[in-house]
Design a protein that fits this description.
This protein has eleven helices and nine strands. It has helices at about 5-25, 25-35, 45-50, 70-80, 85-100, 105-115, 185-220, 235-260, 265-295, 305-315, 320-334, and strands spanning about 120-125, 130, 140-145, 145-150, 155-160, 170-175, 180-185, 225, 225-230. The strands form three sheets. A four-stranded mixed beta sheet has the order 1-3-4-7. A hairpin with a 2-residue loop joins β3 (about 140-145) and β4.
Length: about 325
């Protein structure tokens, strides 16, 4: 196979990157931390207009009918900007779950609304104790022992909780599973976790790259003993180790997205490899970034904390690195 992105895929991701550079800079992310919604006003509509939200939805409901490999670089760019929108969850997990498993009438109705930007669907997987964006969701895709359920918000109880990332509005969602709401069995739920793990891994790689960029920029300017601290061998080694961790994780993420697109039988294995590597990389980069920044890295006035706290939230989301390594061992070793 030709293991490289096409020019169209790169151009689409670059267009999204340009939008986020203008509309989702650190100042905008700070606004999302402080407002009532945890989101950047008007940004979701812009993403909808570009077709990003409905990228995996069929063309008949307003989507683009594309694949996971087309979306993964876009989600990576979202991670680089610490995008405070449920893009990876809705575009990468909810849309294909409803597309593939909901009855035709429900799928057409809900996907049309999602692609048009008039409603959102919140996702609650068993791997995650909290649901992002539960308040205001038009529907829920929730996991129970028997699979995924498509649940009306009128029958769920939402309890808001605090997150270390101020732009992530999370809640506990209590509900009673019913055969009437069952959308698909355990295999469908496992597939949803694979998608969630892959796209969360893409976000983590983007966050790690931004933290690394902030760190290398800082150590090139910060001086001690009359020279930039980036010239010290210990700092060079730290930054090199951080870069290696991210660059080794990225190909695993791209591979996982390709496997999902191609319906590879080993897609679950590749998704776990990607999430484990990306979680470890983001953790390493975050620790090194904080250490290299010294005291300023601990302040909320400095932008590093926006990306670091998002990374902390996502490292454990959709399965920790340890849990995904166990999945890899089970798959490889039987």
């Amino acid at each position: 196979m030709r293991f490289a992105f096409t020019q169209d895929q790169l151009d689409f991701a670059e267009a999204v990157s340009d939008l986020l550079a203008k509309e989702c800079d650190p100042a905008a992310v700070r606004v999302a931390w402080e407002n009532d919604t945890g989101r950047v006003p008007g940004l979701w509509s812009r993403l909808v207009e570009m077709g990003v939200v409905g990228l995996l939805a069929p063309e008949g409901v307003g989507g683009l009918g594309m694949g996971e490999i087309d979306l993964v670089r876009i989600v990576y760019e979202a991670g680089r900007a610490a995008l405070p929108e449920p893009l990876s969850t809705i575009a990468g997990v909810v849309v294909p779950a409803v597309r593939d498993h909901a009855n035709t009438a429900d799928a057409e109705r809900f996907l049309s609304d999602v692609c048009a930007g008039t409603s959102t669907i919140a996702l609650g997987l068993a791997a995650n104790p909290l649901v992002v964006g539960a308040a205001g969701a038009a529907m829920f895709v929730l996991e129970a022992d028997d699979g995924l359920h498509l649940v009306d918000p009128d029958v769920v109880e939402i309890t808001p909780e605090q997150s270390v990332d101020g732009s992530r509005r999370v809640s506990r969602v209590n509900w009673n599973p019913s055969s009437a709401t069952l959308m698909c069995g355990p295999s469908g739920a496992a597939e949803a976790l694979d998608r969630a793990a892959t796209f969360t891994a893409a976000e983590l790689c983007g966050l790690a790259d931004t933290m690394l960029t902030l760190t290398t920029g800082y150590v090139a300017e910060r001086k001690q003993f009359g020279v930039p601290i980036g010239s010290f061998q210990a700092i060079k080694h730290h930054c090199a180790n951080a870069m290696l961790a991210v660059e080794f994780a990225k190909p695993l993420v791209w591979r996982a997205a390709y496997s999902l697109t191609q319906r590879d039988p080993d897609a679950s294995l590749h998704a776990s490899m990607a999430k484990a590597a990306a979680s470890d990389a983001a953790d390493v980069v975050g620790r090194i970034a904080m250490q290299c920044h010294g005291g300023i890295g601990y302040t909320v006035e400095y932008d590093l904390h926006l990306y670091l706290k998002r990374a902390w939230s996502l490292i454990s989301q959709d399965g920790s690195a340890a849990s995904h390594r166990r999945r890899v061992a089970d798959r490889v070793l039987g």
